[in-house]
Every structure is written in structure tokens, then in C-alpha cells.
Amino acid sequence: MKSIKTIAIIGGGPSGCALATLLQRKNKYKIAVFYLEKRPEIIVGESLVPAIMPFLQKLGIEEEMKTYSTYKPGASVWINKEEEATSPFSMGQGTLPPYAYNVPRKDFDKTVFNLAVKEGVQFFNQVAKIEKTGNGDQLKLSDDTIAAIGDYFNGQPDLIVDASGRSRTISRLLDIPTRTGKRKDVALFSHMTGTEPIEPFNIHLHRLEKGWNWRIPLPDRTSVGVVINPEHLKDYGATREERYDNYIQSEPTLKKFAGKGTRVTGVVQYDNYQLISKKMYGRNWVLTGDAGGFLDPIFSSGLFLAIKGAFRLADAIDKDMDGAFAQYQKEQMRELYVWQQLVDKWYSGQLFNLLKVGSDRMDSAIGRFLGPHIQKHLTRIFSGEAVYRWYSRRFLQFVMGGMLTLMKIGRLNPYKLKDFEVK
Predict the structure, then answer these.
(1) How far apart are CA 336 and CA 339, in angstroms?
(2) Residue 401 DSSP class
(3) Structural domains in the chain?
(4) Under a CB-based contact definition with an 8 Å cutoff, are residues 64 and 103 in contact?
(5) pLDDT value, residue 106
(6) Dihedral of the CA atoms 352, 353, 355, 360 (nearest 10)?
(7) Which among 34, 120, 332, 359 is least surrounded, fewest beta carbons within 10 Å?
(8) Is there a contact between 42 and 223 (Cβ–Cβ < 8 Å)?
(9) Separation CA 163–CA 285 (nearest Å)
(10) pTM of the model
(11) What's the pLDDT tens digit per position in 118-167?
């Protein structure tokens, strides 16, 4: 790839705007962001993890975020509607801040957008049409697009960055193969008032009879989402609103916590989870954020990966050397792989099994010995730190696998793993 001086970024979401800001601050690139103002009424990804905070602090937006967000001190996981396990982030005892925020995405996205504007980034409120050139996988902006922006780049940009999110503009154009996860769930969610209050303002994650759900406390409402196999939804109505409303009233846990609530937004549906492009860069293009890969709303990793990916890509671009984009792709793939492993432990029931056995055995000798250690490393899953701590990952793998098996043999674990699967 030739030396990069001009960069077209497709997409004005957090990933694209964060990248544009970081590159603009280097004061040696000519950058333009293509975006459209159309957006859903609400957007998934409202609960941040502590791992994102150092990046937001480097961007300089935490103080503004405080004015419209809810302080998030931890996470609560419910095995059923009566059994809750709460982990304040401070129990992780790691290097990350012991807090994060629950954010209205409309406000958060606007904050990152406005930051890029303030830094002097050029925005074009229009679609960027991308075409193949016939020269390998090299791409270009269409002649119409070049004309519409007044030949801003004095020809074609040196690099096209796809930050288009789930639209996956370049991946679709080039038909890039993907790696998909085991799950084919859909997520339905809305904002509600009148639900059972949540305090402190942790995110609450519930294992349901079918699927799982989140409750995220926002300043004047609660985000209530359901992630479920679409086959389960057919009996609850024809539209997403009917299915969402009817399921809440028929599912015991949801009825308890949200059954008296009132929707103050429409119902938004997402149905393309766990999809990763097998190639993230080419001759003059690169993918970032959800355009490169996205996983699952559990553990709230999506927005964190989008912002961190922007920092990683800015460094790769700035290195301006052979192998920089290959290294960027390797690191992105590795990170997505590790998060996927944690996601799989949620759906397999391993995490719930550990929480249940831990609760039952807390007063035993083994519980008193291992309990604090287990809670520390479990907390690091929800803070995001477990992904970056080799010991945390290996320890959790042991206690969710080998140790629970040994306890089963020793009749200290009376449960079957399938009893805790997310169906």
C-alpha cells in the first residue's frame, strides 16, 4: 500500500468519528467522513464496560458523557427470577476504572460526532458510492461521489475505511467470506418507564425460560431487551411489537420486572449477530468496527471493540509501513475470537452453572477458599479485563470446566450443564 495521505471514512458512527478524530489530531492527513443522518429510534449498545473508559478519556469526552448518562458500578446476573449474583466492578481488582456508564446512544453518538467536527474533520452528508476498479481488490469512489464532494481529495483517496457498521459496505461489495457463530438469535428491545427500579444502576442480565434479556437503567427510563431464537417468537404475534409485548407478559421473569412498564419507544429488532469478515483489509481499503465483525450483546463488548478498533487502526495507518494492516487484522481477529469464547460460555450454561454451584457452596471450605478468587475473575468478564489477562481466562476456563467436573464426580455439584443452557 502506498504512503497514505488522504482518507475517506464511510460511516459517521462512533467508530468512524473516533478514527477521524485521532487521525485529524496527527495533523498530516486529509480526511473526510461520509454519513447519513438517518438512524433508528434507539440503538443497541447502551451499556459501556470499564475497558472502554481509558479510550474515552483519551478522546476527552467523559465529562460531557456524565451529563446525560447513568453511572454504572457493576453487573448483576440472574439465574432465574429469584436468584441474583451481583459483581461490583471494584471486585475485579484490576487496572481498569471500577465503573462505566449506561448511555443513551443518541447522545453518546452525537458527542463523538461533535468531537470530530470540533477537531476540524470534514463531513459530507451523503452516501459514498464505492466501486471495483478491476485491479485486484482495489476500490474507488464513484465519479458521481467525487463530483458531489467537489473533488475534495484531488482525485481518489489513498485509503477507504469502511466504518459503515452492520451495513458492511465493502464486505458486501467484494463478497468477503464470513465466520459465523453458533447462535442465530434476534434481539428485540425498547425503552420503557414504570418498570421495577434498578439501584445501584448495574446492568441486569437474566437467563429466561427461552433466551435471555437485559435491563439497562438510563436516566429517565429503562432499556429492556430480549435475545432469543426467532423460532420461539412465532407464537407471540406477527409483528415485532406484538411479539415483544406478548413475550414480556408471558415470561415469568420479564413479567415480574417489566410487566407493569410502558413502552415509550417503538421496538427495534437486530437479527445479524456473530458475524466476522475473514478479511479486514485490501489493496487500498480496511474495515473497522462492526463492519469488520460483531458478536453478541451479552457482555456489552460491541461499542468497546468499535472504539478500541479505531485507536488500533489509527496507529496502523500512522505506521505507514508494510505489514501494519496485516498486524491490525491479526489483533482484531484475535480479540474477536477471545470475546467469542466468553460469549459461548454464557450460552452453554457454564457461567450459570458456576454461579449456582458457587452460591450453594459458599459456606463450604472450598467455597471460602476459592470464592473470592472466582468472583474477582468473573467480575473481569463484565469489566472487559478478562479478555486481556491470560491468567483470568485460563482460571475461568478451569473453574467452568475441569473444576465443575471434579465437583460433579465428588457429588458437590448436583446440577447438569444442560439445566443452565440458554435455549
Answers:
(1) 5
(2) I
(3) 6-68+105-179+274-339 (3.50.50.60), 186-270 (3.30.9.100), 346-420 (no CATH)
(4) no
(5) 95
(6) 140
(7) 120
(8) yes
(9) 11
(10) 0.92
(11) 999 999 999 999 999 988 899 999 999 999 999 999 999 999 999 999 89
Sequence-separated (6 or more) residues with CB below 8 Å from residue 302: 44, 45, 290, 294, 295
Angle at 227 between CA 395 and CA 252, to 5 degrees: 100
Name residue 191's amino acid: H
* Contact between 221 and 264 (Cβ < 8 Å): yes
CB 24 within 8 A of CB 122: no
pLDDT 10s digits, 194-231: 999 998 889 999 999 999 999 999 999 999 999 999 98
Cell numbers linked to 248: 414480556
Q: In the structure grid, which three cell numbers stand for residue 210, read together?
A: 427461552
Distance CA 407, CA 97 (A): 34
Burial class (CB in 10 A: 0-12, 13-18, 19+), 390: exposed
Q: What is the pLDDT of residue 370?
A: 62
The residues of the chain scoring below 70 in pLDDT are 1-2, 272, 356-371, 373, 395, 398-419
d(CA 14, CA 234): 34
Predicted local distance difference test score (pLDDT) of residue 276: 93
